[in-house]
Amino acid sequence: MRSFFTHYSLRIRGVKMQLNGQDFIIIGENVHTTRVVRRSGKLVTNNPDGIESVRYLGMNKKRRYLVIPESIKKSQEYEEGRVKHVIIAVQAAMSGEEPHASEGVEYIRKIVQRQVDSSTDFLDVNVDEISWRLEEQKEAMRWLVQALQQMTDIPLSIDSSNSEIIAAGLEVYDSSVGRALLNSASLERLDALDLATQHNTKVMVTAASESGMPQTPEERVTNASRMVDAAHDRGIATEDIFIDPLFFPIGVDTENGNHAFEAIRQLREKYGPAIHISGGFSNVSFQMPSRRLINDVFMILAVDAGADSGIIDPVTNNPQKALAVDRRSKAYQLTEDMLLGKDRFCRTFLRAYRKGELEG
Fold first, then answer.
1. Helices in the chain by DSSP H: which ranges?
2. How far is residue 73's CA from residue 80's CA, in Å, rounded to a whole number?
3. DSSP state, 211?
4. Residues 292, 297, 303, 309: what is their CA dihedral angle, to the nearest 10 degrees?
5. Crossing angle (nearest 10°) for helices 85-95 and 134-151
6. 150: which DSSP letter?
7. Domain boundaries, the chain
8. Can you give the pTM of this predicted structure?
9. Buried b / exposed e across 149-181, counting CB within 10 Å, b at 16+?
10. Is 23 helix (H, G, I), strand (E, B) or coil?
């Protein structure tokens, strides 16, 4: 492993995000191989040599370019107008081929730095989409965990749909900076709880059942409660448990917001202040316009319901800025109505968007 820590130590110690007078735990989602930028957006352009690249500002504030390789240009996502920029950076950095390797490292470092500056408590790390081969996924997870820990001493959230990939990350994780968060365990994957006890991590448990996703708040609470019991049976303390009630797109079902908020309320009432209630907040805005606005309002309502954590992009959806929004504004009220199921099929919200009446 080459050294990445020579010039920068990316950490602001002692900075805690507070919402409504309570600590809010941010799990930054940006070191994730599903992340994309739009080809039609301002970040994808040609570098000085005329090669299509992702433009960004390096740590020295100078413009730099991450070249989009031919392998990415052959992907379906690229053809559909999306560029998986984190995959590009990780693959370039791991290749060791200069100048692309150094560019990949700098790009990852910049992603980390922006989240650190936004008071992130955990950096979520997911490499599932870097390859369909398990050994390559495990190699990438090991590499990325070690690279990130040379860039920052913020604890990591080791995230994968495969327990073997999580194990690969935990095996090389240096817990001297703080305990990792295992993301995640579920009723169909209880072995992940054993990994959490083996490596002394905190753990995210989801509300999924053995057979699929929950459809109602009650199903979420029932499934999550079974997971909490299973964690307790393995000696995991309540304060080390994060519950993900599972949040689904509002554009698919306008009751998805209400289901989320009611599940949060019931879980908070059941377990009190010790347990953490989190989840992927940006899921709710999937395939909707004005995603930042929707994510901000969802965050406000989730915190009101009892959430004290979120898997979020803290750069574009900073919690303190979100809670400072004017709740009397038309944009806020239309979004809140939609998330509370008062706008059937999101028609009023979408009409306002087309008229240019929304911000975000």
1. 70-73, 76-79, 85-95, 100-117, 134-151, 163-172, 191-199, 217-233, 256-271, 291-305, 319-323, 330-339, 347-354
2. 10
3. S
4. -10
5. 90
6. H
7. 18-32+119-354
8. 0.94
9. bbbbbbbbbbbbeebebbbbbbeebeeeeebbb
10. strand
Tokens of 285: 């805005």
Which token pair is 242?
């994060």
> pLDDT tens digits, residue range 105-159?
999 999 999 999 999 999 999 999 999 999 999 999 999 999 999 999 999 999 9
Task: Please name which of 176, 112, 164 lies closest in space to residue 140, comparing C-alpha atoms.
Answer: 164
Residues in the chain: 360
Superfamily name and number for 18-32+119-354: Dihydropteroate synthase-like (3.20.20.20)
**Neighbour-count burial of 355, counting CB atoms closer than 10 A to its CB (0-12 exposed, 13-18 middle, 19+ buried):** exposed
Tens digits of residue pLDDT in 21-58: 678 999 999 999 999 999 999 999 999 999 999 999 99
